[in-house]
Amino acid sequence: MENGLIDRYNRKIDYLRISVTDRCNLRCFYCMPPCGIRKLSSQEILKYEELIEIIKCARELGIGKFRITGGEPLVRKGIIGFIEKLAGLGIDFSLTTNGILLNRYGRDLFNAGLSRINISLDTLKENRFNRITGGGDIREVFSGIDAVRKLNFSPIKINVVVMRGINDDEIIDFIEWGKRELLNVRFIEFMPLSREDYFYPLKVIMDNIIEERKMVSVEVPGSGPARNFKSTDGDNIVGFILSRSEPFCNECNRLRLTSNGMLLPCLFSREGVDLKKVLREGGDIRGPFYEAVSGKPEKHNLNGIGQYQYMNQIGG
Ligand code: SAM
Ligand code: SF4
């Protein structure tokens, strides 16, 4: 398509985040509903072949960047084969994982053609990790990180969602750890999707850290809305994503596809466009893309949370 997908506010939509499963091997308290989830049946979720068809269509429409997420993408059976197919398409794609299964699958993922990876880790403390994730073992994440570091993934980004009263005391620890371990750490503001809002504004602390540590701003291609900095005495990058302090809706370039095939114009969309229905009825799946793009709001409506309330359903 010549001009790609352009929305009503003249934003070019060229990035698709794809949730391949609603299931997860952790139970992060802020991501999963407290009552648990109604697991989608295998008929409800998009098959890998369907995802490939959707991705090919998206690419024709000008979407050039894809992220595979979940739930936890590495718990879905057949994920390695799917990654191999994606790599075969020659598209620019990356994967977000909680890292628990990386020790087991890191090499297979790399051999399948994955080169960029984001690992979510909200604390460096064993007991706190266990509490946040509803029973997870942080040692598995550390060994997963070690495994992928040996494999030349580039970049490896560690994503930390900073939450008031939960882990807001660990920002400096994470910066020191990233420096020691030569890992890029990104701090992300909490989005009000769950019932309780743990928002911890990062702007002031970011400014203080930059000044005290004499960090310099760096451009990192492909790092989206993150503001990135480097110390003069270290090679790793520290990023801040100020989704709430400084919303970047005016630059938003993304759509989200849920594992049951709904295309969401915005993280806070009340409802999505049923792409799966059109696909399974043999219709033209470009239609749902046009519809989702034309339904993209100018900015997110934090009060307008819709049917997809938790990240495990939306695909963070
Ligand atoms: N299971 C994988 C993982 O944890 O990386 C992928 C899916 S998870 C939903 C993707 C990301 O969304 C994680 O980094 C998680 O911390 C983040 N997330 C979940 N709920 C969030 C919220 N309310 N605000 C900001 N980020 C959130
Ligand atoms: Fe699972 Fe990721 Fe949600 Fe944690 S943040 S419950 S790891 S999907």
The strand count comes to 14
User: Can you list the strand order of the major beta sheet?
Assistant: 9-10-11-8-7-6-5-4-3-12-13-14
Q: Number of domains in the coordinates?
A: 1
* Structural class designation: alpha/beta
The biggest beta sheet is recorded as: 12 strands, mixed
- In N-to-C order, the SSE pattern is EEEHEHEHEHHEHEHEEEEEEHHH
Distance between the termini: 28 Å
CATH top level is: Alpha Beta
Estimated share of beta-strand residues: 15-25%
Helical percentage: 25-40%
Bound molecules: S-adenosylmethionine, iron/sulfur cluster
- Oligomer status: single chain
Question: What spatial form do the alpha-carbon principal axes imply?
Answer: globular
What is the average per-residue confidence, as pLDDT, rounded to a whole number? 93
Descriptive labels:
18% strand, binds iron/sulfur cluster, 316 residues, TIM Barrel, globular, 12-stranded mixed β-sheet, two-stranded antiparallel sheet
Describe the structure.
It is built from 10 helices and 14 strands. It has 316 residues and is an alpha/beta fold. The protein has a single domain, classed as Aldolase class I (TIM Barrel, Alpha-Beta Barrel). The strands form 2 sheets. A 12-stranded mixed sheet has the order 9-10-11-8-7-6-5-4-3-12-13-14. Strands 1-2 form a two-stranded antiparallel ribbon. The longest helix is centred in the first third of the chain and has 13 residues. It binds S-adenosylmethionine and iron/sulfur cluster.
